[in-house]
Design a protein that fits this description.
Elements lengths: L28 E5 L3 H11 L5 E5 L2 H10 L4 E5 L7 H10 L8 E5 L5 H9 L2 E6 L4 H52 L7 E9 L5 E9 L1 H7 L11 H4 L4 H14 L3 E7 L2 E10 L3 E8 L1 H45 L3 H31 L8 E4 H18 L3 E4 L7 E4 L1 H17 L6 E9 L2 E8 L33 H11 L3 E5 L7 E8 L20 E5 L3 H13 L3 E5 L2 H11 L3 E5 L7 H11 L4 E6 L4 H9 L4 E4 L4 H13 L1
Parallel strand pairs: 1-2, 1-3, 3-4, 4-5, 12-14, 18-19, 18-20, 20-21, 21-22
Antiparallel strand pairs: 6-7, 6-10, 8-9, 9-10, 11-13, 14-15, 15-17, 16-17
Length: 665
């Protein structure tokens, strides 16, 4: 049996050393493995121009040597090779801890059986490519893997820097605490603590009338702004007259009750933690620690966490920009490309764009929740309506895996006070999670019901189940259970966290149950009931007017042009502008009826452009395009004169409704 062992290779190319990551994209290397040199040359020619370094291996053993020498973004591996075939190479690669996550694409010149294909996926392959290789397919697959490899390297570098910064702050914080412990050991005469001993001053009847400083260390005098000798022997009412009443009562309570009292205070611009305790029948010891620097460190740690959350939000927002033109282009292609096999490719692009958009939504929601910026727009709704919206969201995944979905029907509505969109998103996250971890052809069951004085929605599956040790952590941020190599649809590990947070914001709860691995799982969401709503008049959806002139303003040319193409297919006349200034210049000549305006424009931003457009043409309908969708974002766009606010990547149906309303107006 061959084994893959870490060691120094004769080729002299060392593995990447820890700590060598930088924010620049790492150079991607692709390992090409085939016993026919001509094929290797053809693969290199196909990949030319992708900016990758191709490394050849003419056998499985040579491939293993190359893998020990350096890191690769992907492996293009021939299945049928003498001595050691591709399956054996893949097995050895997956057994090595450093290489187990390296993507493998199998290349085969013969038709493989479904059993062999499953074997390949179990060994870690992410895809199969048949010979003769279609250059466009190979280039696109490798390009995606290279981009993921480079993004992973960049994120690792960022995480390393954040971890180092946090470690430094934590070390400083721990050092401050250790210093504080050392100070307490010196107790009274420690150079940084403020320690004083006070004696009760009594009148002839024995009642306490004041407190006298019988001793005080140098720091007390410094804080009070007077020499130590000027403190000792003086009364509390003389030393701190503005705090004498409060201090008198606290000291009296400590002496008589024998309790230890600890409180925080601020004096002379310093943060203090004061401890009072009795010493004998007449004395109270006052020990105060200066925590100004400690508080400063805590604030710095909180600021570091805040910057991390802002980074997550900004990352998710910025990644929306490339998703929008991808989604638009896919929609255009779906209407222009007639061939069935090409339509399938378009479908892949559309589904993956939706999946990427959902991941970005999860990232944004996590950042908003941790920053306390998420707000609910409640209304009294039937919980079944949210269930149906959730099913619509999860339906493409359910259909692709041929799952049998059963929805229990309710005779009467179950009313809750909830944010319809957020609650539907929560239920969809659970349904999608169930679909991901249920084998093809499995069963999903959704049951809304009355549970005592509350509403409940139960989502059950007969999938892979949940290990008992993982159940307590299933709602933790970024928590993911161990999955087989064929479980390739796992997300970021934030969907269930978002779901739990949002459900709890509604005053509800969510629990997960499973009999164990391989025995399915059940998630139950519970919410308080609400009074039935008053009957509202039906909403009339306006019909679109297809002769609109639409001005599209976005500095991302791909996003603007792809959206323009899509609207032209709808029968509208469009014009693209790539800056605020260009939009203002085009207003008079083009005379648009509606403007789709990106907010995040360089130079003259979308808010200012909207104000100027409205000043010139008050009746003009202006719709904001933005990666931000919180209540404060919508309020700010409305204040700037926008008539509507759409979130990137724009949902086509939402855009159609906005255009139709604008037309009627």
């Amino acid at each position: 049996m061959n084994t893959l062992q870490t060691g120094q290779s004769s080729a002299g190319v060392a593995p990447l050393a820890a700590g060598e990551l930088s924010l620049s994209a790492p150079r991607a290397h692709i390992l090409l493995v085939d016993d026919q040199p001509a094929r290797l040359l053809s693969y290199e020619a196909i990949l030319l121009g992708l900016g990758v370094q191709c490394v050849r291996a003419l056998s499985g053993r040579q491939a293993l040597e190359r893998l020990l020498e350096q890191e690769f973004a992907a492996i293009l591996l021939d299945v049928n090779m003498p001595e050691m075939d591709g399956f054996e190479v893949a097995r050895l690669v997956r057994e090595h801890p450093r290489l187990e996550r390296t993507p493998i694409i199998f290349v085969t010149a013969v038709n493989v059986s479904e059993l062999d294909r499953l074997k390949g996926y179990e060994l870690g392959a992410i895809d199969y490519i048949a010979v003769p290789v279609v250059p466009e397919i190979l280039r696109s697959k490798v390009a995606v893997l290279v981009e993921l490899y480079q993004r992973r390297g960049q994120l690792q570098a960022i995480n390393a820097e954040l971890t180092a910064a946090r470690a430094q702050l934590t070390a400083e914080h721990e050092k401050a605490l250790a210093d504080r412990e050392a100070q307490l050991q010196a107790v009274f005469e420690h150079p940084t603590d403020l320690n004083a001993i006070l004696k009760a001053e009594r009148d002839a009847s024995g009642a306490i009338v004041d407190w006298i400083y019988v001793n005080a260390n140098r720091n007390v005098g410094v804080l009070l702004g007077r020499p130590r000798s000027d403190v000792i022997g003086r009364r509390m009412s003389e030393i701190v007259p503005d705090r004498a009443d409060e201090g008198f009562a606290t000291c009296k309570h400590v002496l008589e009750s024998r309790e230890i009292v600890r409180y925080e205070s601020e004096f002379g611009g310093r943060d203090l933690v004061v401890t009072l305790f009795a010493a004998g029948t007449e004395y109270v010891v006052s020990s105060a620690q200066d925590t100004t620097e400690q508080r400063k460190l805590q604030r710095e740690l909180l600021e570091s966490d805040r910057r991390k959350d802002e980074f997550l939000a900004m990352l998710a927002h910025e990644l929306r920009n490339p998703v929008a033109p991808i989604a638009n282009a896919a929609e255009v292609l779906s209407r222009l490309v007639p061939l069935q096999n090409q339509q399938a490719l378009v479908g892949i692009i559309q589904r993956q764009a939706v999946h990427l958009g959902r991941l970005l939504d999860d990232l944004l929601d996590v950042a908003r929740i941790t920053q306390g910026r998420i707000e609910l727009r409640r209304e009294v709704i039937d919980v079944v309506a949210c269930v149906r919206l959730a099913i619509e969201t999860a339906e493409p995944l359910i259909r692709s895996k041929a799952h049998q979905l059963t929805l229990t029907q309710m005779l009467d509505p179950i009313y809750v006070s909830a944010d319809k969109v957020r609650l539907a998103q929560c239920i969809a996250n659970v349904v999608i999670n169930a679909a991901k971890y249920t084998d093809d052809g499995g069963e999903l069951r959704i049951r809304p019901y009355l549970d005592g004085q509350g509403a409940a929605v139960e989502i059950a599956d007969n999938g892979i189940g949940i290990a008992p040790e993982f159940l307590p952590r299933i709602f933790d941020l970024f928590a993911q259970s161990e999955r087989g190599l064929d479980r390739s649809q796992g997300g970021l590990g934030v969907g269930l966290t978002v779901c739990k947070q949002v459900v709890e914001m509604h005053g509800g709860s969510i629990v997960a149950n499973s009999a164990g691995v391989g025995r399915g799982s059940t998630f139950t969401i519970r919410l308080p009931l609400a009074e039935p709503p008053a009957t509202a008049p039906p909403v009339v959806t306006p019909q679109p007017h297809t002769s609109q002139r639409v001005l599209i303003v976005d500095d991302n040319r791909d996003a603007a042009d792809s959206l323009a193409m899509l609207l032209r297919l709808e029968g509208r006349e469009t014009l693209s502008a790539y800056s605020g200034e260009e939009a203002l210049r085009a207003l008079r000549p083009f005379n648009p009826q509606l403007v789709l305006l990106d907010i995040g424009l360089p130079g003259l931003d979308g808010y200012e452009v909207a104000r100027r457009l409205k000043a010139i043409a008050p009746a003009l309908h202006v719709i904001a395009l933005s990666g931000y969708a919180q209540l404060e974002d919508r309020q700010r766009s409305a204040a700037a004169g926008f008539d509507a606010h759409l979130v990137k990547p724009v949902d086509l149906e939402a855009l159609k409704r906005a255009l139709a309303f604008a037309s009627q107006r």
